[in-house]
């Protein structure tokens, strides 16, 4: 049994510069869920929402660290003392002039923010690399059409490829959802381009989501790998 306090809760926090886009500020934190206690919210200056009252400590630790990263990123762009609350679907609510996104997986949380000057949506996602068993169970819900051919690339394992595509589509969903206000499936987009040298991807929208997100539109983003996880980020640019 681990005694609370033997390790710090937040193990490290850093601005994730090598992964940032020209639009976004990204913060990443590693945390030790075994050192979590409710008083950590006050110590880190994060509001404790009532809906977490009955949540398990793991969920509280993930939420806290994600909001802590969001607070650090917002402070970096000059937004201080802002509470990132959530809507009825648990989608984070950001300042009116800011787009943002939060993700967490196991002991890592990450948040990205950007001003809505040239963009109207941003999505970031982190996923632990899936096991072979999990890949076999979900690949038909993640890959569609020509995307199944990506599993034939010799130098990338199916576990990494499916984890990456899942993450990319999650990032697009997070970037698009605040504009659409409704859920849509992974079959709404198609991965057209993956470059494992420059870590760049491109996807195409296969259906109209609203007046701004139309079938045939293409979006580009970045991905990287760290400590057994895949990260992806995508911004939706405003049309000139």
TrEMBL record:
Description of how the protein assembles with itself and partners: EntB, EntD, EntE, and EntF form a multienzyme complex called enterobactin synthase.
Positions annotated to bind CoA: 59, 67, 103-104, 125, 170, 174
Family to which this protein belongs: Belongs to the P-Pant transferase superfamily. EntD family.
GO CC terms: enterobactin synthetase complex; plasma membrane
Pathway note: Siderophore biosynthesis; enterobactin biosynthesis
InterPro entries: 4-PPantetheinyl_Trfase_dom, 4-PPantetheinyl_Trfase_dom_sf, 4PPT_N, Enbac_synth_compD-like
Example GO BP: enterobactin biosynthetic process
Organism field: Photobacterium lutimaris
Protein name: Enterobactin synthase component D
Positions bound to Mg(2+): 125-127
PANTHER family attached to this UniProt entry: ENTEROBACTIN SYNTHASE COMPONENT D (PTHR38096:SF1)
One Pfam family per UniProt: ACPS
Domain 4'-phosphopantetheinyl transferase N-terminal: residue ranges: 50-114
Keywords recorded for this protein, A-Z: Enterobactin biosynthesis, Magnesium, Metal-binding, Transferase
All residue ranges annotated as the 4'-phosphopantetheinyl transferase domain in the record: 121-203
UniProt function note: Involved in the biosynthesis of the siderophore enterobactin (enterochelin), which is a macrocyclic trimeric lactone of N-(2,3-dihydroxybenzoyl)-serine. The serine trilactone serves as a scaffolding for the three catechol functionalities that provide hexadentate coordination for the tightly ligated iron(2+) atoms.
Cofactor(s) the protein needs: Mg(2+)
Reactions mediated catalytically: apo-[peptidyl-carrier protein] + CoA = holo-[peptidyl-carrier protein] + adenosine 3',5'-bisphosphate + H(+); apo-[aryl-carrier protein] + CoA = holo-[aryl-carrier protein] + adenosine 3',5'-bisphosphate + H(+)
GO MF annotations in UniProt: holo-[acyl-carrier-protein] synthase activity; magnesium ion binding
